[in-house]
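As a warm-up, study this chain.
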Amino acid sequence: MNLYEHTIIARQDTSPSELKQLNEKYTKIIEKNEGEVIKTESWGLLNLSYLIKKNRKGSYLHFKIKGNGKVISELEKNESIDKKLLRYLTVRVKKFDLDTNYFGKKEDSEKKESFKN
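Now compare it with the structure written out below.
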């Protein structure tokens, strides 16, 4: 089984309920194709580096997936059709970093660091 990190950027006008539906939809596709979702993260609405289909912002969803290449090809096939999505990216990794929260609030990480000292 290979390990993948898969990120989806949805349109900025996508509602939270639609994001939840997208998350459930792609989780079902992964599980139907003998894959396993290890972790799902919602990074929220972030600025894009450049305009994509006339959008300045996008809602990010990030999946950590364990599966084979068939899972990824099926995911990407469905995502290329979906009008709610701007971009998607899949990266194969050697191991998952399940501890670090890169898009959490800075106050939370500062509090954790002060407890360590």
